[in-house]
Amino acid sequence: MALRPLERYKERGENFLYDHPVLKGFLSNGGLFLVSTVSALIFAIGFNCFMDPGSAVLSAVQADTGVDMYALASGGVSGISQVIVLFLELCGWKDIDAQTAISILYFVVNVPVILLGFFGVGRKFTLFTLINVVETSVFLRLLTPDLIPALGAVFHLVNANGGMLARGLFGGVFTGLSSAIAFKFDFSTGGIDILAYYIALRKSTLVGKYSLIMNCISMSLFALLTAANAGFDPDASFLAFARILYSALYLFASALVVDSINLRNKKLKVEITTSKEGLGSLLVAQMPHGATVMDARGAYSGKGVYLVTMVVSSFEVNHLMKIVKKNDEHAFVQVMELVLVGGRFHMRPVK
Predict the structure, then answer these.
(1) Does pLDDT of 270 surpass 70?
(2) Residue 311 in 3-state DSSP?
(3) Residues 6 or more apart from 131 whose CB is under 8 A from it?
(4) Are 50 and 167 in contact (CB under 8 A)?
(5) Label partner for 64 (CA 20 to 30 A): which of 30, 39, 174, 255?
(6) Cα(56)–Cα(164) distance, rounded to whole angstroms?
(7) What are phi and psi of 69, to 5 degrees?
């Protein structure tokens, strides 16, 4: 079957890069650096616009509207950083610059977890995770509503039209998108994401639910320390734990975005009905998975056909479909999502 012009040029480009490994490595790593930068920008904007725009912005809005303004617990390492800042305030350090402290702590808390990624996941994974963490730490300090009025305007607009409910939703979408982009290219945004990625790889399941569990713990500590800083005043304590409801919305939105985009551990069952006897062997030769081939007969035509069954990861489906279409244009293909896969299943290793 003749290739279409776009596919032909793509194949020529792949062949050229295959013959020039240095250029291929430069372009690949440069692309990952660009993706890491975009991920860090999205996270910093989402956090500073919707989750914690800073005490100056919150106080100004509170003065204008007469409504109490609060930072939301973000979960992850940024959430742990928020918890540490609250603990320091509880210990008497009241004049701490919260945004500067969160920026520094975001990097410091990530160090031991990055070591886990280096030994437990992959070196390239860890390198670009570290790059992302450094970029995020810098952007968290530079992209603040105090320094960039446009970000403050976005906060005012969202808060005026939806309050903490909208802030939690938009914050979850932004930070979830940041993590999902990183996971899509086999690195992470650091911290709890590394732990979640490590566990998900070992259990061969989706990442989002593990991030959700660990983030719930940091959110609970955030509410407890906020209440403690208020002297466990009944009204203040109630408000502290009520804010967790909005933060929970943030976490669910974030986890949903991550698991919707990052499909590395999602398994699909593919059934192919074909008249080509050797298609099953061809798929096994070009895919890192086994297959089952059964003799069948078409109910309408009465002709003998072959039924090929294979389980693949979601990111491998397009490659499989190209192989099938190239060798049998008339093959009938069904793709079904699986809840659980037992036994040995090859997963592309993370470098």
Answers:
(1) yes
(2) strand
(3) 33, 36
(4) yes
(5) 174
(6) 17
(7) -115, 140
Using a 10 angstrom Cβ sphere, with 0-12 exposed, 13-18 middle and 19 or more buried, the burial of residue 349 is exposed
**Angle at CA of residue 48, ends 218 and 111, nearest 5°:** 50
Neighbours of 231 (CB within 10 A): 8
How does DSSP classify residue 198?
A: H
Residue 29 to residue 21: CA distance in whole angstroms = 12
Which residue is it, tokens 């061809």? 282
Dihedral sign for Cα atoms in the order 343, 344, 348, 351: positive
Tokens standing for residue 106: 């975001």
H-type alpha helices, 230-346: 234-261, 279-286, 317-327
How distant, in Å, are the alpha carbons of 4, 72, 103, 243 from that of 51?
Answer: 47, 5, 14, 11
Token readout for 207 is 């990442």
φ/ψ (deg, to 5) at 180: -65, -40
The tens digit of pLDDT for each residue in 19-55 reads 666 666 667 778 889 999 999 999 989 888 888 776 6
pLDDT in tens, 91-108: 877 677 776 787 788 778
pLDDT in tens, 313-337: 877 888 899 899 988 888 999 998 8
Give the Å distances, CA to CA, from 231 to 21, 25, 227: 62, 56, 6
Tokens 């072959």 -> residue: 306
C-beta of residue 162 within 8 angstroms of C-beta of residue 7: no
Max CA distance (Å), the chain: 83
